[in-house]
Specification:
- By secondary structure, the protein is α/β, with parallel strands linked by helices.
- It has 21 helices and 17 strands.
- The radius of gyration is 24 Å and the shape is globular.
- The protein starts with a strand and ends with a helix.
Length: 463
């Protein structure tokens, strides 16, 4: 039975959540402060911590970092108000599994809890099981209509068959791990392990052990030997997220492994050969980090064989419609609901919103909206107030969302996305149909059929 710790200063929340989760057959304990939680964690095994961002003695992020020192494999969910969304995004950057917004909806929280515990079970070395490289449906990389998304897909297809190292750049929540998985799944190593490691969630003092492993007795608490992620990924792909968080010493050891293709466990003397393909991700400018001395120049150039840059969602609003429809479909499956789509006014608000947390934030908003929705279409009251009160620029949305009378279905979303993608690439290629067909990865005949179906030829002649 999985054990969950609830940390909240509101005793009513502790009592009601504990009662709810016990009915779902979880082992639950509660504390009212961060210091109580830490003291309790040192004496018992816990799989998941759910903590409020505003505790009486420290912030939820402070507690998160202390939890990760005790056990990097414990998953943490942060509870916060929607007005603190930037704080929640920062928490995810620092190792939280996810965040949920108050007021809490039990079914939404339960879904997030199960996702977190499933990830915990998949993590290499987790005490309750290991399922390395298992690809989940929700890990699919969605090809959206914007030119930037099409370019990313082209780069994935280009680089995947090689053995080159790749740096994936982008803000938190833009889908860096999804891109890494997509590269792995299209490579010759796809039947071998895919091992993701979040360097931002590993305390510096434990990073060497997590990366390179350790022998029994290497340090206090090392009661047994452990394989590092390089050995666990042998033959497959190792994905190091937030690579910039590695200490200078660990960067030096990383360089040695990449150059010599052998790994030596902490406290050991034996060198173990490893064969891995390395993919890394960062939300910071590594060139700037190199100039400031925070990142080794030799490591940067060893990693930077190819770079893929993910653009924030707010800079490619035409993609919002596609991802919203995909997340709606996913939420329907997870929540056993049958919401058909979005009111047009609601979709316009989604397109106009800034999305500080990018795709991750959009996914959470859509999931919550589907949970709340009591009719066939998601409408404005289903959205958080910060989004439902968003000022809509109709001219701006007009370029992204085609006119519709009352509603938009998933089929319509797909058709509009396809039409938008074709128009976007046509503009980027100065209406060169041969280049457009090449970028869209279709033959010319298919492209001409699409142009006719969507009356795009007529528009071009009109111009």
């Amino acid at each position: 039975m999985e054990r969950i710790m609830i940390v909240d200063g509101d005793e009513n929340i502790n009592v009601h959540l504990k009662k709810f989760l016990k009915k779902k057959e979880f082992d639950v304990c509660t504390t009212s402060s961060g210091s109580e939680a830490i003291a309790s964690l040192k004496g018992k095994s816990v799989d998941l911590v759910i903590c409020d961002f505003k505790l009486s003695d420290q912030s939820g992020i402070d507690l998160l970092q202390k939890v990760k020192v005790i056990d990097p494999l414990i998953q943490v969910i942060i509870c916060t108000s929607y007005s603190n969304i930037r704080v929640a995004v920062d928490a995810v950057k620092k190792g939280a599994f996810d965040y949920v917004t108050k007021p809490l909806f039990p079914d939404e929280l339960l879904l997030t809890i199960r996702d977190a515990l499933a990830k915990s079970k998949r993590q290499p070395g987790r005490r309750n099981g290991t399922r390395i490289g298992k690809k989940q449906t929700e890990d699919q990389y969605i090809i959206a209509p914007s030119y930037q998304s099409q370019l990313v897909q082209k780069h994935i297809n280009l680089i995947a068959p090689t053995n080159m190292s790749v740096i994936i750049c982008g803000e938190t929540g833009t889908g860096k791990e999804y891109v890494a998985r997509s590269i792995h799944e299209r490579s010759d190593r796809r039947h071998q392990p895919f091992v993701p490691i979040d360097c931002g969630a590993i305390p510096n003092e434990l990073a060497a052990s997590e990366l390179f492993g350790h022998v029994k007795g290497a340090y206090t608490g090392a009661i047994a030997g452990k394989k590092g992620c390089f050995e666990r990924a042998n033959g497959g792909t190792l994905f190091l997220d937030e690579i910039g968080n590695l200490s200078y010493d660990n960067q030096m050891q990383l360089l040695r492994v990449l150059q010599e293709k052998v790994v030596r466990r902490v406290g050991g003397t034996t060198e173990v050969p490893v064969d891995i393909r390395l993919l890394v991700a960062t939300n910071e400018d590594l060139k700037t980090a190199v100039k400031s001395g925070d990142f080794r120049e030799d490591v940067f150039y060893r990693l930077n064989e190819f770079k893929i840059e993910l653009v924030p969602l707010r800079e490619r609003p035409q993609d919002t419609e596609v991802f919203a429809a995909y997340f709606l479909k996913m939420a329907n499956q997870q929540l056993n609901k049958n919401v058909e789509g979005f009111q047009v006014s609601t979709l316009r608000k989604l397109i106009s919103y800034h999305w500080h947390g990018n795709l991750r934030e959009l996914k959470n908003v859509v999931k919550r909206a589907v949970l709340i929705c009591e009719c066939s279409l998601v409408d404005d009251p289903c959205l958080p107030v910060e989004i439902s009160h968003t000022e809509v620029d109709k001219d701006f949305c007009g370029d992204v969302l085609l006119n519709s009378d009352v509603q938009i279905s998933l089929k319509e979303v797909a058709e509009r996305a396809e039409r938008g993608a074709i128009l976007e690439v046509l503009r980027k290629t100065d209406f060169n149909k041969t280049k457009t067909a090449e970028l869209l990865q279709v033959d010319r005949k298919t492209l001409y059929n699409k142009l006719a179906a969507y009356n795009i030829d007529t528009e071009m002649r009109g111009n």
